[in-house]
Each structure stands twice: as C-alpha cells, then as structure tokens.
Amino acid sequence: MSHASELIATDIDAYLAEHERKDLLRLLTCGSVDDGKSTLIGRLLHDSAMIYEDQLASLEADSTTMGSAGDGLDLALLMDGLKAEREQGITIDVAYRYFSTSRRKFIVADTPGHEQYTRNMVTGASNCQLAVVLVDARNGVLDQTRRHTLIAHLLGIQNLVVAINKMDLVGWSQDRFDEVAAEHQTFASGLGVVDAHYMPISALHGDNVVDRSSHLSWHDGPPLMEYLETVDVSESLDLDWLRFPVQLVVRPDLDFRGFAGTIAAGKLRLGDEVVALPSAVRSTVERIVTFDGDLDEAQPGDAVTITLADEIDVSRGDLLVGVDHHPARAHDVNATLVWMAADPVKPGRRLILRSIGGEVDASLAAIHHRIDVNSGEEVSADALALNDIACCTLVAERALLFDPYSEGRQTGSFVLVDRMTNATVAAGMILGATSGWDREPDGGLVRYRSEITPEERVARLGQRPCTVLLTGLTAAGKSTIAAALERRLFDLGRTTVRLDGENVRLGISRDLGFSSQDRSENLRRVAEVALLANRQGLIAIAALVAPEVEVRDRARELIGGHRFLEVFVDTPLDVCRQRDPNGHYEAADRGEIPNFPGVSSDYEQPTDMELRLDASVQSVDECVDAILKLLVERGVIDV
Question: Could you tell me the CA-to-CA distances from 198 to 191, 219, 591 in Å, in that order?
Fold first, then answer.
C-alpha cells in the first residue's frame, strides 16, 4: 500500500513519477517465538495509515473472536493469515507486505520465530538488506535470537536493528534495555557484527515505532519508522562486476534472439563487451530491451532482455560477465550450509545443487565443523540435524561458476534438493573453492616409506635435496635463470629436476585457469612434485610467478623450510614489459587476460626470501653464480 498524497487527485503522472524515484528497502523481522514480530509490522502499517478501511474492519472483527490483545486490535492478525497461525498464535510461514511512505518503498517479510520453522526464516532473509531482530525485554536474548542473528549475518545482511520490545512490561526501564542490548552486543561482536542499532519499543502500544514515546524520553535515537526511512543500504549494491544470469532465450521470430534475465551485479551499457560463460566467447551488447522500451543502461535488479552483436551460443543457465573480472570456477567448494530437513545428513549423500547457473548433481563431501548458535564457536560434527549451521565441502559433477557469497549474494548462493522427493533440504552460501592444500584424500591411504635412507642418497648423489623457487613477474627472467642453473648443476655432476611454469601449465596443470585459486592450486601441484623429487634426493628448480605471499609460504611449509629456498627475481615492471616475448602485458592492458599480475592484479613481493636478484642489472651468469653460492652456504652442494 502507498502513502496518501495530494498528487493522486491533482496530478497522477507526477505522483507516479515521484513514486518511481523512491528507492526500495527489503527487510525482515525475526527473533524468538512471541517476541512481537507480527505485532510490530501491524503497528508500522496501522500507525502509518497503511491499512485499507475494509482490512481494518475485518481486523476489528477478527480481534474480537480470535485476538490476544484484550479489547484492543490484535495487529498481529494482519500478518498471521493462515488458519493454523491464528489458532496457535504463532507465525508458521513467511508473510510479505508491501507499503511505502513519502520517503521510501518497503517490502517486509515477517518470518517465523519457532525453531521448527527456521528454514522459513532463511527463505525470508535471502533477499533482504536489513533485519529487525525482536527481543522480549523480559526474557532477553534466547537461543532463537542468537540463531536468527547468526543466520542474518551469514546471509550477508549488513544492516541489523535490534528492537527490544515489550518495554511496557519492564516499567520502561533504561537499565533493563541497556542490559539486554549489552547481552546481544557481546554475542554479535563475536560473530563480527560491528554496527547493530539498538532501540527500545512497545509494538503493542506503538511506543517508538512510528512516533517517539514519552515513556522512552531517555532514548535519544529516532523511532523505528524514521530509521527505516533514512538508513543507507546503497553500499550493498555491487556496480563494478557485471553478473547477468541468462534465465530465458527469447526467440519470438527469425529476426530477434535475446537473452532475458535480471542483472545480479554490475552495470550493463550499450556497446559493452561481454563474455559468455562457460564458453568464454565474447560479443558486445547491441540492445537492452524492456517492456517500456529500450534502455541505454541497466543496473542490479533490472529485469531486461539483451541482444548481442554476434550470433554466439548462449543458453539458459549461462552467465554474461564483463571482460575484466570473471567469477571463480571449481568443482569443489567450501560453503556454509543451513540444513533444513528433518532427516539428518552425513557426508557422502548425493543431492541436486540449484543456483543461478542451473542445477547440477553434487555430493556432500565433508562436514568441517558445526557452528554453536549459543556461542558462535566451531564444534566438530559427523552429521547435520534440522536447523544446524555448518561449514562443509561440496563436490559438483560440473564445474560451478560462482563468486564468494561475501562478494555476490546471488552468484554465491544455492539450495540443495533431495534427488528423490525434490524437497529443498538446505540453503548454502559459497565461501570459495576448496583448496587442495587442506583437502584430505579419501580411501584410508597410507604413505609408503622408501627402504633407501636419505643418507644413502646423499652419499650416492653428492648433494642434499632442496627446492629452489624462482618467483617474480612475467618476463622477469625466471625461466632463463632456471635453465642456466640446471645446466650449471648438471655440468657439476649434480642431479636436478626443473619445473618450468609454462611446461607445468601444458601438463599437470592444463585444467587450471589464472584466478587466484587456480594459481594457488598450480603452485601446490608444483610443490608436491618438488617434494617427491626431494625425497628421491634431487634438487628441484621451479620457476613460477606465484604472486601471493601466503601461497608461497604454504609451499615452504609443505616442502619444509630447511630445504626450501625462495629466490625473488626482482626485475622492474617496465623492463619486464620491454622483454615480454609473447605480448602478454599488452594483451592484459587490453583486458584480454584477466587477473594478470602487475596489470590487473597484484604481485606480492617476498619479504623473507633467501635471495633477491635483479635481472635488469645482473647477467644470467651472475644470477646463477649467486644461487650456486647460496646452495654452497646451505650445504646443498660443495664446489
């Protein structure tokens, strides 16, 4: 329902234009049973004159026969529309109401407080920008209060209002308000919620809901409605990275072929170059079509049909993105799951994963830990029961295209569906691709030890095993130095194995791209091979960009710090550009190579390397001499 305006009678076009310009706030009310969620929404609508006369008359009649507010209006009946809800006095399903004021439009979801219906709360919260958590001032923070706060936080809701209700039943006590607020703040701070807004209210009597209350003169903040009208939620919109999931291919005749969907993130403009995933084919936007006519630009939330300049293969479930920032792609992902089925689940169960990219068969590979809703702490778990929240690993049969949920709510969320009943059993938020560094192999494998001791290998080969990692920007000279080092060691009678970055990419890492996750996995594979070589007594020489400090440190940890030497080839960027034989830097400048260190992503320089070289001023022989000197000093070889 919209607010009354004089423009409706005098200039309907001006009224509609004014209404269209208002921004929309999606919010939900949540909290424990009987904390006053439905009553609060009813009070917001009633005191803002947002209830039609026939609804009000019906409400008065229903309040007499089944209300719980004495002789007054039972405003909760506005939201509790199911017969079972009115009989039991609780909310079971999610109820939605639309209304507007002179400042803003609202869609409010009234979610159930009973633990049995937590899954419905997850549904209601999935698209909301703000959560109003109701707390009964008499009871304080309960388990379901904590659970709903935790779920709202996990779902990425950045704006949290904690409405401490029923202040009339505690004598409008400021001390009690402060006590309950402090109790909730302690819990919320442990989750990482830093900006919760606390306010005292009485939803039944309307104190501090739409108008300020004389009973709460000690509270200097705005009433709830004023806060909802003015809170800034625009920062949650992602306008930088285009994400356009194709929901329908529109082909009404031979002359039109468009792709319909709702923009999940980023802006889309005429003439923009886009990439269709997973095919990675490019084209440009020719038209942005809507029912009201073509647009020059569309943004998140706009439902549009676009046409492309080229006849490329795009199907339902594909994703159109910008050329400069692609989503991650992986079969194995870590995710936060909210289990919503009565039957518990254990690792190994096969399910259907549904997301904006369509559906794919998947299995629950591992449960890493369950989150205790009372403390927020991580607890070990072998299975998940109804309403459990846990960090898990899922393995999909087809690679998933996604952004971490913290970066994109629509591209990072999914539901799990039972393969037999087609019932939704879980909601999930993707944390990121599962790292091979942490994955434990299945099958109870046992590592076999060689009967040849390390000392025997040292005596036979005349060297101690080690791994030399040459890291630096593309075209810094890493591969050239690695090849020259290999030749010098060979001439000295030493036994080596060289792992060049490009050779690795043509072999054991041919399935990887160049995202941060893929680069991490590439170095992990190289480190595993280097470790195998070291255990055979060999000197491993690896030449990779390896742009992240943390990942290089993981390689050092895997191989062992006592036999890991990090050599930073610190050639200046402008020199690397001049030397680049394959034109990679120019391609990256044009946006053809995403996530390119030194251009479109960062290269994190080592801080604790064993040796620093500058191939712009040192010759290849000088660089090799420096590495050989280091190897002698570390006792790897003697000359």
Answer: 17, 10, 46
CA–CA dist 439, 395 (Å, integer): 12
How big is the chain, counted in residues?
A: 639
Q: Considering only CA atoms, which of 371, 379, 127, 383 is closest in space to residue 262?
A: 127
Q: Give CA–CA dist 523/380, Å, rounded.
A: 30
pLDDT digit string, tens, across residues 382-410: 999 988 889 999 989 888 889 888 888 88
Q: Tokens 């942490």: give the residue.
A: 438
Domains of the chain with bracketed CATH = 7-236 (3.40.50.300), 243-322 (2.40.30.10), 328-433 (2.40.30.10), 454-633 (3.40.50.300)
Residue (of 8, 79, 7) closest to 46 by Cα position? 79
387 close to 147: Cβ distance less than 8 angstroms? yes
DSSP state of 271: T
Is the pLDDT at 446 greater than 70, yes or no?
yes
> DSSP string of 472-531?
-STTSSHHHHHHHHHHHHHHTT--EEEEEHHHHHTTTTTT--SSHHHHHHHHHHHHHHHH
DSSP one-letter string for 525-541: HHHHHHHHHHHTTPEEE
71: pLDDT strictly greater than 50 = yes
Q: Which two tokens stand for residue 82?
A: 């199911």
d(CA 385, CA 346): 9
Lookup: tokens for 532: 């195998």
- pLDDT tens-place string over residues 102-145: 778 888 887 775 666 666 777 777 778 899 999 999 999 998 88
Mean pLDDT of the chain: 85
H or E stretch including 428? strand 424-433
Tell me the pairing of strands 243-245 and 248-253: unpaired
CB 474 within 8 A of CB 545: yes
Q: Which of 97, 101, 60, 96 is nearest to 210 (CA)?
A: 101
CA distances from 265 to 47, 236, 245 (A): 36, 10, 10
Q: How far is CA 9 from the centre of its chain?
A: 47
